[in-house]
Amino acid sequence: MNFSIHDALAPLAGGALIGASVSLLYLTHGKIAGVSGFLGRALMRRSSDRALALSFVVGLFLAGLALRVVHPAAFAIGAGAPLPVLVVAGLLVGYGTRLGNGCTSGHGVCGNARLSLRSMIATVTFIATGAATVFVSRHVVGGAP
Amino acid sequence: MRDVVIGVGSGALFGVGLGISGMTLPSKVAGFLDFFGAWEPSLAFVMAGAVIVHAIAYRVIVRSRSEPIWGEGFRLPARADIDVSLVAGAAIFGVGWGLGGYCPGPALVSLATLGAPALVFVLAMTAGMLVQNAQADRASRPPNGASDPPPRKLEGAST
After folding, report:
1. ipTM, 2 decimals?
2. Model confidence pLDDT, tens digit, residues A40-52
3. Distance from A94 to chain B by nearest Cα, in Å?
4. Which of A102, A37, A134 is nearest to B95 (CA)?
């Protein structure tokens, strides 16, 4: 592990922006900004807050376009898991986040900030199974992203 | 209209935060999850920064206001119980996160690269969500009800 305090600054700053974003949504709409929840509800025709949910997803995409210009190092082109692995990963992430009612944002940020026991348990669980998966793919099978 | 402005604005703020913090780099995510190898702790500070800011803002908001500016009341998940769906869902999500290095937010931000990895991941993630949505629908009829309250019994059978 090679780590200096300098490596924490960009993550802290980015995290603060994420915290500001979810706080803004709570102040204006009183809603929890979970990305998986928003995407899930954007996909449901009978969702009551579909406009907000869809707009949030569009905002994420627009941020990606801006980052490509201003901060292209945010993306690693050509690196990462093979496409078949990404298909399996995507299916699991989509299914799991809806079944568990949240992901790294809804549970990891919003729920933990409110000291929700459900969210704390979810966070510990997905970090644990994520770590176990990386352990198997990097150190048992080999060749993970 | 204001839903769109606030939605796009907060989504963009959230997405820029993800990009600055390194969450859009799958290799960095794998490094963070690699506790038994060359562990890269930097992404722990993303959640720390976000939780600290929101924990403070959340308390200020609920203490100073009884209602959000435009919404009808502050919506919080009503559930407090730890059930199988919560733990199983989080566990399944974690496996996918470890395999692909993407959680939902960074995947949607990375769509802007128009690269095959993000595209394929988001399509698969959407499919996974649709499958779960359909399952949840089937489990909780009637279809127009919200997902939280239990299905109401049909009325008028007593006559």
Report:
1. 0.94
2. 999 888 888 899 9
3. 4
4. A134
